[in-house]
DNA sequence: TATGAATGAGTATTCATTCAT
DNA sequence: GATGAATGAATACTCATTCAT
């Protein structure tokens, strides 16, 4: 509703502008994922998006900005989806399940983005200097915190064991990330979400637990 | 004993040569970890190691080679340490414990290297063309397989639940990697190995299991 | 007429582009002739042509390409001039006279190019690997063949003695080349073409012949 | 006789030294001829001659020096052979014949050297700055002058036509040089000297002369 | 004496970014 | 608004030459 309205209120000019901006981002996402940040040149982005180089620069101030915007917006979307899923879930257990499910679904639809996302956490070193770079790391931490809070909630409800919540959040995130990473590398056609039950079983009861 | 002997057998010249080579690798490791592969220039490596640029090239044919050799040799060392630890352990459970302990110890001592190691898996896209790049990926897979085998062993001994071993290996590796990653980012002085019990508890009994 | 038309049909942009390209070639020709291929740097070519380095690279893919294009285009021009001259001549004798006259005139106007041209035949060893390098050698052989054919024609018309035509062509080419070479080295202001009668007399009647 | 004596007078040390120096020159000659001056590295010369790099520098002050010494000494030899041949000949005609015959023989035995020799005349541009480089050009001019003198002699004896001697010398040298060049390129096994009669016939009577 | 490891000065080439049109 | 030609700053790599051994 909001989006529609906001679009309607925009003139055709502005709408076209946004559409082109998004188009460039999509092209850049594909190229960055395929060849990596450094191996992708602005000329390639321009050519692949069928814009002139200078046009690209009217939308994004620099190559860095394209890259960071990419991360920024998609992570926002992911966080938003996670938030929605949590709100619809009741118990901590269900919430965790919901988060993982959303992540699997999301990256299943955004393979290209995952490559960039996974890679990014290292580039942080360099990018953290940039304002936008800092914000992305904050968002990543935000995701971790959300998870940690849920775990804490679960602990106080006697649902989960007394583990340090932040550290558990890290472990769980790492599990999921590695799982997705492997799936993308394998280039299998299997539905990533089909693995959810196993992951959850492992997550809740471990290698040995629950008979 | 063996190493000492083999060193004694080498001439002084050869010993010095190896020492210098190693010195360059160490410098490069620090720089790569600090600034990333692309941001580190050969001139910087030369200056920081107090060698002339061309001298660096007498030890390593290219910048790539330095990077890959770095990975190559340290991963070899890690795999060797893991192998030793496994041999000394009896049960699958102890073996997994040993692997994780070794990893935590290793990266506690090799913070710089971890940044490179973690980053590498993504750069694979580009590096896989290189012979040396392929070998490193093989080693990574080797590590996963070892873990998977132990899990399989545990399953057939009724020690672990019937999970798909390879996928469990991925999950566990991801957990550990994320944990180390977070620890390095936090720049805490806490002993990484002190976290072992928590990790193991989570790993074997999950969030909910074994009261 | 044709050229004018074809130029008129080109847009201003394309015309300018060609002009700049030619300008770079001219500058490179002067520098290569003065200092030789290896002693001439891309930076010098850029500076002397008052373009940025990268601009040079937009016109020519590499330093080699500049050099080879230079040879390529000028040799084409020379061959074209020779062809025209031959067509206007009647007898084999007149044709040979025409060829030599054209060559003398051409290099009189293209002193710089001669140095490059003469030198090239030796560098062939290295350049033959390049596609463009091979083509230039073919053109050189083409020039020799043309001369050889005319000699053959002259022989069958009873005009010339029964000499092996190809070898005569080589001898005559060598004569001319050495003559031009010496003239350029001497840096005399005498018209090179003024020497034509002597050369022809020697060529047709030898040191001793025709009283 | 002289050489033997002078050798005998030298100590073993000095004899060995000369022999090594010559060995290096021979190796360099082969390499320069194969790959050209710039493409040949000092390291290659060292390796191919089985000396250490610094040892090469004890014999020759620089790469340039090797190259120039090479030219220097072989040209000296050629000039000496030509001188001898001239002294044994009586008439100008016989002298010219002798010169050409000596050249053909010499380069037939020194193919490698010819490549360097032919190429050199262009490198002059760069090398003339060097003292040794100037001397080589002087020697080349000396050769031309000798030939010109003989022609002059022939003219005053009524043997040859009244041509400008220097220019004739240039034409003849060019002929011979081109002929040898073509022969080397063709890599034929035919004896180069077998072509002498044709060359002389052309040289003395031209394409048309003396039926 | 002989060496080869060490070196720095030099060079071709690339690419993000900016204007002139 | 849109373009792409122009650019300079940056960088991996080479090679003749020199010393320390």
Automatic annotation (TrEMBL), chains A, B, C, D:
Keywords noted in UniProt: DNA-binding
> Which ranges carry the HTH tetR-type domain?
18-78
One Pfam family name is: TetR_N
Q: Could you cite one Gene Ontology molecular function of this protein?
A: DNA binding
Mark the transmembrane ranges.
Answer: none
Q: Which domain of life is it from?
A: Bacteria
Query: Which positions does the record tag as DNA-binding?
Result: 41-60
* Protein name, as recorded: TetR family transcriptional regulator
Specify the species: Desulfofervidus auxilii
